[in-house]
Amino acid sequence: MDRPSRFTFGTARTDDPGERTHVDLVRRAVERGAWLHGAATYGRSLEVIARVAADGHRPRLIAKSRTRTPADLRAELDQTRRRSGLARLDLVQICACPDSALLAPGNPFREALEEQVRDGLVGGYLIELFWQFCEPLDAVLTDDLFVGAVTYLSAFNRELTNDAAERLSAAEKWLVALRPFCGGRLLDAPTVVAERGKREERDGRHDAKFASLGELASDLGIASLRELSLRFLLASPEVATVVGSTRRRSHLESALDDVERLDPLPSDGVDRIRALHAEWWSEAGAGYTPNTSTELPVEPTAPAGSAGPSRAGKTGLGARLRRLFGG
Description:
Helices cover about 45% and strands about 10% of the residues. It is of the alpha/beta class. The chain has one domain (about 5-185, about 235-320): TIM Barrel (Alpha-Beta Barrel), CATH 3.20.20. An 8-stranded parallel barrel has the order 1-2-3-4-5-6-7-8.
């Protein structure tokens, strides 16, 4: 299976096939060799991909799925292929962290996953892992059906337990890093953090994190936390690709240029960031109880041709930052 591009373009914000700039942005990403990350729930972003595919391009797509039954899985992936104009989905991200029972040999859901690969409709699967939902980790590490995992990862945060992070790092499996700039926090930090007013930011934890990263960047002669984070990800052999989203051509070009021109972070810098991650997790995760329930909220799948769930009202500072490579 082909390894994804180092930078993958998230299509959640380019969701209007009638908007030329949205189509041009996705086309440019594909022309430069970037894979795409998309979902049936991202408005009409799949129709934007279809327009690019109709021009003779062959977009490579990591598609999200939140289903839990064989019938729903088949219907959702059929819809994703139909709306995107793609006969095959390169990778499918199984969201909401299913428990291992669903993925075990003989389970009907597992058989439906295998069927999609056997029929040439899907290249392979990624499992979404977050710190309270790391129960399927063994399936990621030992099962050939799953080529790797998806999680939030940047210099600023790591949404995995210490144990999960260590085991994934040691395994020869891919890790797809979402929100490489921590939802925009690392673009113009620390000013933005002071404006957000979240509880843990008010009590100083985030300020301390920025101080630690700022000290490291200074020691390494790196001018920005954005560059520090990207070079950390480029230096992590388990990270197959970083996923970022934007509506600005200049930001897309910059991200694609950076993954080619920037040197990976030196090993001592990587070690220091990983030590910080372990320290931050030990503080934040003390006494946590993993949630292994399969009764998780599932986003409704938009019918073909619809605009999908409304994103109306998402116009605050956080939403604006997420549009700038926030994922």
